[in-house]
Specification:
Layout (H helix, E strand, L loop, with lengths): L6 H18 L7 H10 L17 E3 L5 E3 L5 H22 L6 H15 L5 H6 L1 H9 L5 H5 L4 H14 L5 H4 L1 H13 L5 H12 L7 H7 L13 H12 L5 H9 L5 H7 L9 H14 L4
Antiparallel strand pairs: 1-2
Helix pairs in contact: 1-2, 3-6, 3-10
């Protein structure tokens, strides 16, 4: 989530460690007075600002060593993409599998799957149908004993051996636990359920015009804006990202605002500190109000 990866904090921890070692060992060649001077001259990190790490740079390098723009999904978008992928996988499995069933049975199965996959379900219905969804799309079969954790490792091994002997080596029940838990999490915490609302939320946040409050905020905290905080030229990178973003929110901020159900501006700025230097409280609360009005009531 919002984790500061600033190198300033790392430098501060390193110097404190050196100071502790020096005080513990009087024979150490490091002068205690010089250490105190370093601590006093050390730039203090302002925890009110979120410093994005390399994983949040706007320009990312993919596995093909090609540059591409950063993509951040909110929970509602991730839920729709995963469920759509499972639907496509079900269609692929149906095409490559040799089926001897009658056409009527296929139509009944497809109708049942459409009901299970539908985004118009209530939250309770979606949670109840997760195992069926996985069964239709991945061949997953839910073992009650294994899911509840009541079976011992020996019993689970015996079940695997029986499946291998009978030729029904269905290991999906073991392999898809992460996917199952992900679907449960998204069903519980995704705020928007249908694709139209998700697209509206994305458009709303993409059109938000930010303001440059950074300079005034730094003056309030008595931070020297003319000095460089670290030797990694992070200021230069920030200027480049500012040119790419213009007056828009960062993709990570857009994803977080759509995922977190915040009511007040203080709450949003606490969870997403980088909003402190981009939006006034009145503007932020107006945006939060519009997001809450679009939220699906279960």
């Amino acid at each position: 989530m919002n984790v500061s990866t600033s190198t300033v904090a790392s430098n501060r921890r390193r110097i404190r460690k050196q100071a502790n070692e020096a005080f513990a060992n009087p024979l150490n060649s490091i002068n205690n007075n010089s250490i105190n001077n370093n601590l006093n001259n050390m730039e203090e990190e302002n925890t009110g600002y979120l410093k994005f790490g390399d994983e949040f740079k706007l320009i990312q390098v993919n596995h093909n060593l090609e540059e591409e723009m950063l993509t951040c999904l909110n929970l509602s978008e991730a839920r729709l993409i995963i469920r759509e992928s499972l639907l496509e996988r079900h269609k692929l499995m149906k095409n490559i599998k040799n089926q001897n069933n009658k056409k009527d049975d296929d139509e009944n199965a497809d109708f049942q799957f459409e009901q299970i996959f539908s985004n118009a379900q209530s939250q309770e219905q979606e949670l109840e149908n997760i195992d069926k969804l996985l069964e239709y799309s991945t061949g997953y079969t839910n073992s009650v004993a294994i899911q509840a954790g009541s079976s011992s490792p020996t019993q689970q091994q015996q079940i695997k051996q029986q499946q291998q002997q009978t030729g029904n080596n269905n290991s999906s029940g073991y392999e898809n636990q992460a996917l199952r838990q992900t679907l449960i999490y998204l069903a519980n915490f995704a705020r928007y359920r249908d694709s139209e609302t998700v697209a509206t939320v994305r458009q709303l946040l993409s059109n938000v015009e930010t303001q440059d409050l950074d300079y005034n905020a730094k003056n309030i905290h008595n931070i020297d804006t003319t000095t460089t905080l670290n030797p990694n030229n992070r200021n230069t990178e920030a200027e480049r990202e500012k040119e790419l973003l213009g007056n828009q929110l960062h993709p990570f901020e857009i994803a977080q605002m759509a995922s977190l159900s915040c009511v007040e501006a203080d709450e949003a700025k606490t969870l997403i500190p980088s909003l402190n230097k981009k939006l006034h409280d009145a503007d932020l609360e107006r945006i939060l109000s519009e997001l809450n009005e679009l939220e699906t009531l279960y």
